[in-house]
Amino acid sequence: MEENNKLRSSLDAYLNGYAKDEDIERLSGWLAKEPANRNRFLQLCRRFESKDNKIEKKLHELHSKLGLPEHRYNHRLPEIGYRRAVVRTLSAAALFAMGILSGVLIYRLSHNVDRQQYTEVFTPRGEKTKVRLPDSTIVYLNSESSLKFLADNFHKERQVDLTGEAYFEIAQDSREPFDVNTHDYTVRATGTAFNVMAYADFKRTETTLVSGKVNILYRDKTIPLEPNTKFILRGNTISVEEAEVFSETCWKDNKFNFNKIPFTELIRRLERWYNVDIAINEPGAFADQYYSGTFRHEETIWQVLDVIRMTTPFDYETIGFREISITAKPNNN
């Protein structure tokens, strides 16, 4: 209880502009524990912004301190550039430096073992962003996803750790491959474009190759991919299939396309897309339901749910802030 009170006090100090080093350190430690804390932090900042314009001033001050470009909230994907100069502005004594860019949380983490300094970009629910890495590789980061990399030595060791989903446009460098590490396998490329979906709560990990060539490094296997093919890992089962590239990559263009996915996965994707929590009462009632379709981000969650329930009868209601409950209707047939 005492620790929670200290955390609230540090958050209030940060938002109101009088945070001390101990407040920043406490908040940073809490943010590093799990993605849910980062998402909660950004939601609190947005609520604060709606009540008071002081957050705009704090963003400006923080951007100036870190040497980052200014961005404002909008529906376009902001591009974040990482330069060595940004890393050098960080205090060696600080455990983290935090920033908020258009709903994207950025912080630096120093490992005590080797004193290597990592940068992590976390995109919360309802947001997407475009990241330019030190080697000019472009990464589109989907909602509730994170990308971690060692910025100082990136040109010599091009590798990132991905949780969630991202689309990569790899800068050409035949001498130094580019590795994307997921919790299941590594994608190795030199100059190419591909999409990786590696959400921990999905029952599979996928890599879709758009152009060029990549190798999938899985255990003791090296599996090459050709354009318009997709590597899928379900449990311990691997497969290479023909890919629907538009369906797999259109999320970065603010389109939500899905093809024969189960109802529970559709709901999880909608939660990330619209930054809501959806509770499914009696999820077994939807066990055999699969869905295909396309939506644009301009459409509200209510419009999307209304379309879905045209084929699957259910009722929904709002039960709290950004909380929705879904209940299946009885089948009268």
Count of discrete domains: 2
Please give the share of residues in helix. Answer: 25-40%
Q: How many E strands?
A: 21
Number of helices: 8
Residue ranges: pLDDT <50 for 5 or more in a row? 49-57, 62-103, 109-113
Distance between the termini: 53 Å
Mean pLDDT: 77
Note down, in words, how this protein is organized.
The protein is α+β, with helices and mostly antiparallel strands and about 325 residues long. It folds into 2 domains: about 70-245, Jelly Rolls, CATH 2.60.120; about 255-330, Phage tail protein beta-alpha-beta fold (3-Layer(bab) Sandwich). The chain is built from 8 helices and 21 strands. The protein has helices at about 1-15, 20-35, 35-50, 55-65, 85-90, 245-250, 265-275, 300-310; strands at about 80, 100, 105-110, 115-125, 130, 140, 145-150, 160-170, 180, 185-190, 195-200, 205-210, 215-220, 220-225, 230-235, 235-240, 255-260, 275-280, 290-295, 315-320, 325-330. The strands form 3 sheets. The chain has a 16-stranded mixed sheet that branches. Strands 18-21-20 form a 3-stranded mixed sheet, covered by helices on one side. A hairpin with a 4-residue loop joins strand 9 and strand 10 (about 185-190).
